[in-house]
Amino acid sequence: MGYVIRGGRADDVEAIVDLGKRFGLQMRPESSWGQRDAISLVIERAGGDLCGAFIAWRLADEMEVHDIVVDDPERRSGLGRQLMERALEVARVWGCRAILLEVGSRNQEARNFYQRLGFQQVGERKNYYANGDSALLLRQEL
Ligand SMILES: CC(C)(COP(=O)(O)OP(=O)(O)OC[C@H]1O[C@@H](n2cnc3c(N)ncnc32)[C@H](O)[C@@H]1OP(=O)(O)O)[C@@H](O)C(=O)NCCC(=O)NCCS
Q: Per the structure, how many domains does the chain have?
């Protein structure tokens, strides 16, 4: 099946929020619309509905990833990697020296994904989430 990766738009907000909720993510895409220092991407299925989303911000000379999600049927087909590769291109254009993010210590799926993409753990915030899980701080130098 064909997929299109494109920039997020105002009329994607509801679909992105719903997609995030299904996987326990509180996505706030509207906060990034039209912002010079933000990037939002979505993945569109051939039929037009969304099966992936990505939101990140620039903070000084670093890109901070807020959210990345790929819907269940599309997992492990390389789409998450493609979202991150697009983001890395933007980070380089922005002149960022690193890309940073937080991941739940028990989110093994995402931890494997980030490790495979070359992220390294640089810190940990204990009891960070409401359920008591730690947040691991991951970083990749560009
Ligand atoms: C994390 C997530 C975005 C990965 O998306 P994806 O499209 O499935 O990832 P890809 O297919 O691009 O995977 C790239 C590589 O990462 C690794 N990987 C991804 N998911 C993995 C898993 N469940 N187990 C082990 N390795 C995994 C693999 O090495 C994979 O390459 P391979 O399939 O050739 O072996 C997806 O699992 C997701 O949406 N999870 C729920 C939301 C979430 O937790 N987001 C992160 C919040 S911090």
A: 1
Regarding the beta carbon of 135 and ligand 1, being less than 6 Å apart is answered no
> What is the 49 CA–ligand 1 centroid distance (Å)?
20
What is the C-alpha separation between 13 and 27, in angstroms, rounded?
Answer: 9
Q: What is the pTM of this model?
A: 0.95
Whether 112 is in the pocket of ligand 1, judged by its Cβ within 6 Å, is yes
CA distance 87 to 116: 16
Q: What CATH number should be reported for the domain holding residue 72?
A: 3.40.630.30
Contact 58, 104 (CB under 8 A): no
Query: Beta strand 135-141 with 98-104: parallel, antiparallel or unpaired?
Result: antiparallel
- Per-10-residue mean pLDDT for the chain, 142 residues long? 91 95 89 79 95 95 96 98 96 96 96 98 95 96 96
- Rounded to whole angstroms, the Cα distance separating 15 from 56 reads 18
HSE-CB at 121 with a 13 A cutoff on CA atoms is 13
Cβ(111)–Cβ(77) below 8 Å? no
